[in-house]
Fold:
Amino acid sequence: MPKVGYIAILGRPNAGKSTFINALIGEKVSAISPRPQTTQRSVTAIYTDSKKEVQMIFLDTPGIHEVEKNSLKTSPNINERINAEAFASLREADVILRLIDPTRPQGIEDERIDTVLSFINKPIIRVETKQDLTKSYPGKNIDFKINSISQENFEPLLEKISELLLEGPYLYDEDYYTDQPIDFRISEIIREQLFAELGEEIPYASYVEIANVDNGDILSIQAYIHTETESQKKILIGKNGSKIQEIGTKSRLILEGIFGKKVFLGLRVKVDKNWRKNQKILEKLFPKR
Structure:
């Protein structure tokens, strides 16, 4: 009988959670950028090793974070929802991977995570990431040290996780590597490019709406980027439409790599003032689990 179970990956922003997932699965499952809160909802990644008869369903959670007062990066509503999304994964998990970033000093966010985990009666594996970088602040009580670039120590980590899982039938077909809806995957890729191409403020003041998807021989997508002010809209569009075209082109190329077909991506920008206070929009962006 196979070993099967859910593994929640928990850590502060930019601890290497999404990088680990993408390296392990060998596909672009989670959006990545150096900026915190690139991941705002838990992302499911499915790792199946048919030879060893194991299926691990990883929950790549948003980084647990504290927000500075008067920060432009988020609002209390969004901050609470992002953290709630991460902690909700603990209820589903059979095993928890606690990722520690050794390139930065431990802070309030780490203390909050460890306090929550102290009340969790589930196996917790402490993993130090970014072994390819200078480790100025090594973690304590580390079980594994991994390098997601070279996949160093992935195998012993997976073996340990497998030991902790229970026997049961596969929950997904062996060729599945995520169960994300296509709309969500598309919006995450576009969001990733917003973080890559724009400054500190605009990505946090924007959200992506997928208006229409026609998944035929060509994947045809109409999407809207909503932002809060006309000035943000002008920056996002750029001179003669150069910035929105760049975001669209880079998103399209990534999507073509993911879906293996030609992609038509129509991008438009709308102003939606005070959307971060609109409960209907927030409920759509962060559905209850």
In short: Confidence is low (pLDDT under 50) at residues 32-39. The chain has two domains: 3-167, 182-285.
